[in-house]
Specification:
The protein is α/β, with parallel strands linked by helices. It folds into two domains: about 5-65, Ribosomal Protein L25, Chain P, CATH 2.40.240; about 80-235, Alpha/beta knot, CATH 3.40.1280. About 30% of the residues lie in helices and about 30% in strands. It contains six helices and 13 strands. Strands 8-7-6-11-9-12 form a six-stranded parallel sheet. α2 packs parallel to α3 (about 120-135) and α2 (about 90-100) runs parallel beside α6 (about 220-230). The radius of gyration is 20 Å and the shape is elongated.
């Protein structure tokens, strides 16, 4: 079943009418007819099954049939901070996979070894939406503008309760408490020593993981680390 990102879909809305040209073209390309189903996501936690109620040349009206409570989201918020990659296609690939693997926030990092200083944020945002529709997600991740590691640790990291920091010298991945988790993925040139120290000096618990006994490209490390984080998150034990 196809999924559409419909940010104007309210929490209690039973119908929604789409009239912008881009989404009308999308719906027509799907050859949807009256009564046929599709998924709608408002990107803020609501994922519903709807049906086409009316097709006009200038608008399509959709009626909500059921809310999907189990939308495949991770049990706790997971964010990823990624060093900006030199090749646009590789950065877009990494962002798409982060969305598909369930992250709720993506921060782009300018590090000591970053060579690219500008990022096409509008294009990346479109990639996020396409990945949300592809993976049928209820939440559209927040995409943060490029920032330094110091800015990340002072403004973004406090929203989380633990950090995962992949590096060759790290240990074997272990179970993680089911708490909001921030994953740091190194840039193409690796982390500079002052950046490693800054991560170690932050106030959050840091889990240093070795993902493989070899050097990985940043986008490969991101996919591998997110898969391990998903598997490692464990429910909190019940209170005694």
């Amino acid at each position: 079943m196809e999924c559409l990102y419909v940010p104007e879909l309210g929490e209690e809305a039973e119908t929604v009418e789409l009239s912008d040209a881009a989404r009308l073209r999308h719906i027509r390309a799907l050859h949807l007819r009256r009564g046929e189903p599709l998924l709608l996501s408002n990107g803020r936690g609501r994922l519903v099954q709807a049906v086409v109620e009316q097709l006009r040349s200038d608008a399509v009206r959709l009626r909500v049939r059921a809310r999907l409570e189990s939308s495949g989201e991770l049990p706790v918020p997971v964010g990823v901070a990624l060093g900006i990659l030199h090749e646009r296609e590789r950065l877009e690939f990494a962002v798409e996979k982060a969305v598909e693997l369930g992250v709720r926030e993506i921060a782009l990092l300018r590090t000591q070894y970053t060579t690219v200083q500008t990022v096409r944020m509008e294009r990346l945002q479109r990639k996020l939406i396409a990945a949300l529709e592809q993976s049928h997600r209820a939440w559209l991740p927040t995409l943060l503008p490029p920032m330094s590691l110091q800015e990340l640790l002072s403004t973004v990291a406090p929203r989380y309760e633990q950090l995962v920091f992949p590096e060759l010298e790290g240990g074997v991945p272990t179970p993680l408490p089911a708490r909001p988790t921030l994953l740091l993925v190194g840039p193409e040139g690796g982390w500079a020593e002052p950046e490693r120290r800054a991560v170690g000096d932050c106030s959050l618990p840091v889990f240093r993981w070795c993902l493989a006994p070899r050097r990985l490209r940043s986008e490969t490390a991101l996919v591998a680390a997110l898969a391990l984080v998903t598997a490692a998150l464990q429910p909190e034990p019940p209170a005694q």
